[in-house]
Amino acid sequence: MVILDFYGLPGSGKSEISHALAEKLRYSGYSVKEPSWILDMRYGTLKRLAVKLYKAISYSTGHLKQLRRILALSNIPKRNLSQSLKMWVNLAYTLNYENSNNVDFLIMDEGIAQAVISLYTEAKAENYKICYNYIRNLVNNSVIPVYVNVKTDVALARLSKRKNGKSRLDELDGSKRMEMTERINSICSHLDYEAFVVKNDKEVDDAVDKISDYLQRNEESWLR
Fold it and tell me: Given this model, what pLDDT does residue 152 score?
């Protein structure tokens, strides 16, 4: 199985591009799963939280040591218990899916790279790649990071129209939102570890075509 691990600014178009890619890959005959898109688009807040919590607990049962190590690497302040709990749920939920093997492609619009971004927006920033590589080594499948790179003003304009409260940026405004955006951009620039970069200022179709063409050209390498 190949994991398409999307990351980038909130409002960059990760969900839009990843879902369009999933549809194109299905049309080409591949089996595809996109659990994070389904979770965000089909369920309300409470049910979404319940599903994530259930999956997180299921994964944590046998991987508590590894999850504690991830939180330690990110140096989240111990006093911030609620933030640590949220990060644990997001990480464990993500890893629960990324260690499955029943499809050709697993598409995560909030995968392990985005989990690292969430960790480090509240933590010290010295060891982005160390933390990312450690998490990635817990995954038993091929991972292709896909960085959706969009101009900051475009992402912020989209966020101002969004009402689903999907990210912490949705809860911020003014200077605090801009400060958080700059922190996320900084992290993304450090997470260039074998990343496949697509632009999304306007054309979703161009981004989808670029990724799908790459995947099909390298089918033998990825789907072994």
Answer: 77
Chain centroid to CA 7? 5
| Phi/psi of residue 106, nearest 5 degrees | -110, 120
| Type and span of the H or E element at 113 | helix 112-120
Cα dihedral 80→76→100→28 (10° resolution): 100
**Start-to-end C-alpha separation, the chain:** 8
- What's the average pLDDT block by block, 10 residues per block, for the chain (224 residues)? 87 87 91 86 82 88 85 68 75 80 85 81 70 82 84 75 58 68 78 70 80 80 62
Q: Which residues pair with 147 in a beta bridge?
A: 7, 197
**Could you count the other beta carbons within 10 Å of the beta carbon of residue 165?**
10
Helices 112-120/128-136 angle, 10° precision: 150
- 6 and 110 Cβ atoms separated by less than 8 Å: yes
What pLDDT does residue 21 have? Answer: 93
